[in-house]
Design brief:
With 303 residues, the chain is of the alpha/beta class. The strands form 2 sheets. Strands 7-8-9-10-11-12-13 form a 7-stranded mixed sheet. Strands 1, 2, 3, 4, 5 and 6 form a 6-stranded mixed sheet that branches. β2 and β3 form a beta hairpin.
């Protein structure tokens, strides 16, 4: 049976190497860099490459070198792995790790006055389902218990997304370290995120898939108009425009919605990355025809 050792490659690779601290330190300030050399290891570099009997050099949480026959600088702690395996960690590209639970979706059931415009105070979009101003990096908190569960399953990094609304704002890439949120944040703005689900918006509209598509299309048109005028300020449209240079992730529930979202993207010159519902295999040719990449759910059978 192979002896295995899971080292979080992604964590090492992307952590900032700078030892500068911006938070006050309680006690003596330790500025020693972590300098380690893992030797005699079978290192899986990628799906197509494995280095047998290799050495991995790490300094300040960052991989400095990897390979066979490389020299180890003085002052490094040498750890002989005796043939154990070093694997890259997994990345969850569609996670809600570190985010507060979304409030339950409210329903009017015609018992109260209809809500036509946003109840949110401020210069925001008229419909609460359009919320591109939401940013994961402003509400993220480390969840040590959840991080440990994910690490036990081989994950080292996640892309945390606010799964609420039609225009959902920006997601963030974070490691599963237990340091402060400042230190685990790899990329505060990885992508702009969308869906056809209005989520917890208190505005009654939209109440159908057709309405959700119409609202998203109207938002693209409004945002295009907004950037060429100076009569009003709209936080939501301003943020929406700023996010168009980011990767665009669209969550859908089935292959039909992939095609619907792709049609919207084609209309406005956007190529979405689709977070699919798992049935895309039923229309492989059509899915390929979108030209998009897919984040596909994995459901493992019970042992």
């Amino acid at each position: 049976m192979k002896k295995t050792l899971l080292l979080i490659f992604t964590l090492f690779t992307f952590f900032l190497a700078n030892a500068q601290e911006t938070y006050p330190v309680n006690g003596s300030f330790d500025i020693r860099s972590g300098q380690f050399a893992f030797t005699n290891a079978n290192i899986v570099v990628s799906a197509n490459q494995m280095i047998k009997g290799g050495t991995l050099i790490i300094k300040d949480h960052k991989i400095e070198n990897v390979g066979n026959g490389i020299s180890i600088p003085k002052g490094y702690v040498i750890i002989d792995l005796n043939g154990k395996y070093i694997y890259p960690s997994l990345i969850d590209a569609f996670s809600s790790y570190g985010l507060p639970d979304a409030p339950r979706q409210s329903f009017n059931f015609r018992g109260g006055q209809p809500v036509f415009t946003s109840t949110k105070e401020g210069a925001y979009a008229w419909n609460e389902a359009i919320r591109p101003e939401m940013q994961v990096n402003t509400i993220f908190n480390i969840d040590a218990k959840k991080a440990e569960e994910l690490k036990k399953n081989g994950f080292g990094t996640v892309n945390s997304i606010i799964k609420d609304g039609i225009a959902r704002g920006t997601s963030s890439a974070v490691t599963l370290g237990t340091e402060s949120a400042n230190e685990v944040m790899l990329n505060p703005s990885t992508a702009a995120n969308y869906s056809f689900n209005k989520g917890t918006a208190k505005t009654d509209y939209p109440q159908s898939l057709m309405g959700a598509i119409a609202l998203l299309r109207q938002t693209y048109l409004d945002a295009s108009w907004y950037k060429n005028q100076n009569k009003e300020y709209n936080i939501s449209l301003d943020e929406f425009n700023k996010q168009q240079s980011l990767p665009q992730i669209f969550e859908v529930s089935n292959w039909e919605d992939v095609l619907r979202a792709d049609k919207v993207g084609d209309e406005f010159g956007k190529q979405y990355i689709f977070k699919s519902g798992g049935d895309e295999y039923q229309r492989i040719a059509a899915m390929k025809g979108t030209g998009g990449k897919f984040i596909i759910p994995l459901n493992f059978p019970k042992a």
